[in-house]
Batch of 2 targets.
Target 1
Amino acid sequence: MDLLQPRHRLLRRRFLQLSGLSGISLVLGGCGSNLFAETVNDAFEPLNQRVETLLFKPQTPVPEFPPSAIEPEALLINSFGETPRLNPATFRLVIDGEVNNPLSLSMDEIRRMPLTSMIIRHVCVEGWAAIVQWGGVRLRDLVQLVQPKNSARYVYFQSADGYSESWDLDSVLHPQTLMAYQKNDRPLPVDNGAPLRLASPVKLGYKQSKWVTRITLVNELMPSKGYWEDRGYEWYAGL
Ligand SMILES: Nc1nc2c(c(=O)[nH]1)N[C@H]1C(S)=C(S)[C@@H](COP(=O)(O)O)O[C@H]1N2
Ligand SMILES: [Mo]
């Protein structure tokens, strides 16, 4: 499938840039979170150098799609096991590890943070793709809140169904990497990962953990790198 060949994606991205479409996503992607970042930086100790460098490193936004391109039926449910039923009222997202300010956040607290909406393509290695709208908080905003230590290099995601994933910090801090609680302008359905899942245009589908309960910043990757990675799939899995 040509979607999975990096060269085609790059050409397509370049085409969108040349045709001026990427400017639209730049504008859409710029809303809201600068003020928030300033508030966070004022409220806490200055961030460490490495993470600070990464946070200020400009990352190219992936061009987004117009609402008319959304494919409501195309996102197939893909879960290795049973769908866990988490109570959103008592749900907590724990963020810990190599951080100065570990947090346990309720969905109410997460919903009060700036909402980012994006329309991107989800690509599963099993040979299907879907254009989806996701709404949620930028993962980089959550990372700023917990004040990462200099030693933070990778991020682990634990899910309620036993799934796990690990990501590089650069992709974690990408402005279009979200912890999503909305799909196609509706509350996120349980089968798609409610109350909270990863959504990002820079990674393949299996990196996008559903039902995330814990985010842990670490210095080194552990022997287990993720559910599918431990079964031979590529770790970086970039799009
Ligand atoms: N917790 C958890 N997250 C997961 C999976 C899973 O089995 N468990 N499957 C992954 C795969 S392979 C894909 S393609 C997407 C599918 O997301 P969807 O079911 O919302 O379409 O979820 C990813 N995240
Ligand atoms: Mo997948």
Note: The domain at 7-231 is CATH 3.90.420.10 (Sulfite Oxidase; Chain A, domain 2).
Target 2
Amino acid sequence: MRICPENNLLFLFFSVLNSLKESYEQALRRDDVKAIVLTGAKGKFSGGFDISAFGGIQDGTTPAPKRGYVSVEILSDTMEAARKPSVAAIDGLALGGGLEVAMACHARISTRTTQLGLPELQLGILPGFGGTQRLPRLVGLAKALEMMLTSKPVKGEEALSLGLVDAVVSPNELVDTARRWAIDMLERRKPWVSSLYKTDKLEPLPEAREILKFARAQTRRQAPNLKHPLLCIDAVEEGIVSGPVAGLWKEADVFDILVKSDTCRSLVHIFFAQRGTTKVPGVTDLGLKPRKIKNVAILGGGLMGSGIATALILSGYSVILKEVNNDFLQGGLGRVKANLQSRVKKGSMTQEKFDKTLSLLKGVLDYDSFRNVDMVIEAVIENISLKQQIFSDLEKYCPPHCILASNTSTIDLSLIGEKTKSQDRIIGAHFFSPAHVMPLLEIVRTQKTSPQAIVDLLDLGKKIKKTPVVVGNCTGFAVNRMFFPYTQAALLLVERGTDVYQIDKAITKFGMPMGPFRLCDLVGFGVAVATGTQFVMNFPERSYKSMLIPLMQEDKRAGETTRRGFYLYDNKRKASPDPELKKFIEKARDMAGVGIDPKLAKLSEKDILEMIFFPVVNETCRVLAEGIAVKAADLDIAGVMGMGFPPYRGGILFWADSLGSKYIFSRLSLWAKTYGGFFEPCPYMADKAAKGAPLSSSNNDSMQSRL
Ligand SMILES: NC(=O)c1ccc[n+]([C@@H]2O[C@H](COP(=O)([O-])OP(=O)(O)OC[C@H]3O[C@@H](n4cnc5c(N)ncnc54)[C@H](O)[C@@H]3O)[C@@H](O)[C@H]2O)c1
Ligand SMILES: *[C@@H]1O[C@H](CO)[C@@H](O)[C@H](O)[C@H]1NC(C)=O
Ligand SMILES: *[C@@H]1O[C@H](CO)[C@@H](O)[C@H](O)[C@H]1NC(C)=O
Ligand SMILES: *[C@@H]1O[C@H](CO)[C@@H](O)[C@H](O)[C@H]1NC(C)=O
Ligand SMILES: *[C@@H]1O[C@H](CO)[C@@H](O)[C@H](O)[C@H]1NC(C)=O
Ligand SMILES: CC(=O)N[C@H]1CO[C@H](CO)[C@@H](O)[C@@H]1O
């Protein structure tokens, strides 16, 4: 008999699991069924539990089944303990719940390309259908912990060598092999094994304890703010120490706690928010198909241009890189080559793939070959008349369908396109540095950009593995604008007595990759001042002007590159505090005409966090209210992907809403009275607070999703 639930078994719904149980019961009753093969439609197996059902479980609209219903009653008591053997025939994916179902079978056959893994920790939960118990018993404790803690899947051959699958065959032999295997088990020509009671792969107890201890220590170090990986290790340990049944119940207990945790809610929000950025009302709902883009030209082979070129050729696009002279051109091509070479060195790219990838890149000094490009991305220096010249040249040399994109970070796109007749195909493609590494792509549209151009760039963004977010054309676009008060608030605090290093410490403890001062050192004072000035010029009424960085520049400090900024850097670029910093701070304090505020001089970590992030929340509200972003969730993603805001806090507005608009409004209002207008809450926030409404519930947001 072949069980093949209706929806490809791609996602497991409770209804699918129920029908799985019924099918098993029927198969066990029927005399003509000797053994069972479990597979998905066309051999494809299962991507796991349906994540969209989480929201329902969390808010109580989907009744959660009773504890242990799936892991004990269905998978263990019905499937694994059955009087008839079952074999999983797996192609495509066996992830999360999908792999857990497969592990409850008595053998597994897969194809070479099948991906098998337990990525549940990525969603703030643990493998809840017996995965914490069966995986260690199939592949050993050390490997099982690694697979769960990193969420990384393995492919067929590796799964075979690990013992996770029993044979690897071609897709067309898959079901037949599984069928034969099941009969062989029945007739005792092959061992009939319950994964749950296997012990041969488990390390002896003393060694197992060491492995668990090491995993805990490593997890605490790498993810100090997360509890769920530790709880997952607890569930694994329970099974090793007290036996698999105790382990299953422990797993069920932990699952019930985790599925309702803030971490799970946040990570599920981020999961859907990331997939939702490509839904843009009035653009992606018009039935437009992305046009095929094959050849892309890039103007400027600097840091940005070469990074963008790298990202493109890595995804198979043919790229023309244009520079102004041969020296610069060789420099740009060299950078692309170096980017690829570092992959070869790390072992993530073969020499053959390197050669093939690099052959997609061509350097040029003129526009001759622009006749058949489908998209141009301009990444030359920020100079408006230069950019205007370039865009009118492009109009001459490129075919009429070609999209003209600019990576400008500061110049108004409408100005760039002013002197052309091609405003409908001018669009911003704002990458973050280094462009081949950072995952975010801001797609900047003007009022004239055509929906087709946006749809095309969204498609290209996804193909080069970026998360694209569509935004309007304000200063700083989404990310830089949302986060300009981050540094400014930190400078305001420091001038009034808060310690630089304490600020950075509080912010990194919260989960940011680095604090605002370490960040200034990293991007360099030149860039920090240039962007800061942009905001001071464009938003004078809500910018805090500090002289601290310019004073430090006079001392020839420029950040990490000069080994001196807010920190001192040794040969290995390790940062340490600089006792001399005081002198600059005192001077800046005098120039600002403020004194040390005793309260600010000894702020708690919580207060530091709030005084730095609530201004960011304020500006994010403004970005939303002005319609720069399509929806709140897009800004959550922009902050996570562009600034490294911790995803397990759900993004800036999701996090803010967990604290409540009223609370944030009242704190900002209080500080505004004491420390001035910089902290004044914006009208949008005032409105939400008055109504007790979430900040992410934008009024004119037509596509707010439930999650
Ligand atoms: N994941 C990242 O960190 C990351 C970073 C940068 C860019 N991107 C890009 O973002 C896009 C999404 O990336 P991805 O790698 O996460 O792949 P993906 O969107 O294909 O999803 C990953 C897995 O989630 C499953 N899935 C989707 N909806 C589900 C649901 N409702 N219930 C259960 N499972 C569901 C899919 O079947 C798939 O197995 C891709 O274009 C990727 O290149 C991702
Ligand atoms: C492209 O954008 C990045 C990120 O803002 C910026 O650092 C870089 O200067 C821009 N490059 C050009 C050439 O516009
Ligand atoms: C900007 O570009 C124009 C045109 O190429 C050039 O004449 C001008 O000198 C540039 N300005 C700066 C500040 O580099
Ligand atoms: C919030 O926005 C208002 C403008 O609406 C501005 O006056 C204020 O300075 C901003 N506050 C913060 C904390 O950024
Ligand atoms: C939302 O409303 C604001 C103010 O009413 C407006 O400026 C903005 O353009 C609107 N946004 C969208 C996406 O319609
Ligand atoms: C903030 C900003 O630069 N906005 C501009 C966006 O583009 C429109 C025209 O398309 C201008 O009117 C805005 O000034």
Note: The pocket of 2-acetamido-2-deoxy-beta-D-glucopyranose (ligand 2) is lined by residues 300, 302, 304, 379-382, 407-409, 430-433 (CB under 6 Å).
